[in-house]
């Protein structure tokens, strides 16, 4: 007569192993010709999407189409093509590119600053009243200034993220600062926080909100009620910051692309 152990082993042998859920394959991007320009089209599938949604990318170099689960690439691309007039109108309304050269201005923590070449062959980037002094050759001014802004952004974002992590009772694995094109920040499942360096151009309350938004994802990897309750408990100015980004975010991406 088979023992309990024999029956358990037999059941285990007959049971099929549980396979991990398959991740959807990335959808190949496309290009659209609109008013003589090549516009990139990026596709993103979203499990909760109920219809196709089209929006400009953060840097305004293209568009992003969000797809419901059962919609294919061809239908999504046709949708983007039918929206060519909408895309052209939105791109025409975008702020003009802002060169990062001596004599121009740039935002820093929400305040306008003049960019000044200091004349020194060597040195660093320094603040002086309402001016940013950049040492070195003019040919390297943009790169040196963007590198400095990234360092400033990291300093502000580390401080804000650590403060919110302590307040929310969570820990992050590491923090990176990049030139993200489609979002201001992100939080990965391994606890990595990633932010756009351009947040240092915005007023401090905006950078602060984005830090709160991403740190809260360390506890809730969704945008449900509990998630927003956590964000708003610790960041009461969230709505004001979201409105600012909606109204002025395009301006932050109009500055230099950076390396």
Tell me what you see in this structure.
This protein is an alpha/beta fold. Among the domains are: 30-92, no CATH class; 142-253, Metalloproteases ("zincins"), catalytic domain (Zincin-like), CATH 3.30.2010. The chain is 37% helix and 22% strand. It contains seven helices and eleven strands. The protein has helices spanning 4-14, 73-82, 84-92, 141-168, 204-216, 225-234, 238-253, and strands at residues 30-34, 37-45, 53-56, 62-67, 105-108, 111-117, 125-128, 131-134, 174-178, 185-187, 192-196. The mean pLDDT is 87.
Question: What are the main properties of this structure?
Answer:
259 residues; alpha/beta; Zincin-like; 7 helices; 11 strands
Short note summarizing the structure:
The chain is of the alpha/beta class. The protein has helices spanning 4-14, 73-82, 84-92, 141-168, 204-216, 225-234, 238-253, and strands at residues 30-34, 37-45, 53-56, 62-67, 105-108, 111-117, 125-128, 131-134, 174-178, 185-187, 192-196.
């Amino acid at each position: 007569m088979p023992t309990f152990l024999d029956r358990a082993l037999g059941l285990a042998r007959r049971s099929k192993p549980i396979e991990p859920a398959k991740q959807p394959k990335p959808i190949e991007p496309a290009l659209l010709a609109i008013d003589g320009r090549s516009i990139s089209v990026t596709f993103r599938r979203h499990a909760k999407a109920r219809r196709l949604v089209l929006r400009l990318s953060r840097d305004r170099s293209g568009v992003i189409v969000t797809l419901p689960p059962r919609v294919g690439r061809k239908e999504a691309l046709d949708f983007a093509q039918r929206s060519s007039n909408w895309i052209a109108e939105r791109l025409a309304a975008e702020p003009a590119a802002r060169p990062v050269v001596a004599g121009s201005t740039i935002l820093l923590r929400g305040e306008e600053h003049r960019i000044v070449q200091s004349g020194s062959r060597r040195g660093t980037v320094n603040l002086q009243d309402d001016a940013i002094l950049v040492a070195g050759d003019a040919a390297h001014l943009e790169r040196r200034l963007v590198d400095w802004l990234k360092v400033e952004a990291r300093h502000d974002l580390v401080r804000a993220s650590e403060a919110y992590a302590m307040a929310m009772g969570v820990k992050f694995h590491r923090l990176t600062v990049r030139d993200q094109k489609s979002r201001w920040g992100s939080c990965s499942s391994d606890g990595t926080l990633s932010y756009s360096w351009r947040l240092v151009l915005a007023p401090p309350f905006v950078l602060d909100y984005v830090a709160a938004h991403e740190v809260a994802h360390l506890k809730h990897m969704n945008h449900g009620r509990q998630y927003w309750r956590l964000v708003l408990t610790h960041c009461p100015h969230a709505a004001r910051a979201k409105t600012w980004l909606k109204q002025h975010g395009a301006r932050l991406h109009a500055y230099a692309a950076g390396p």
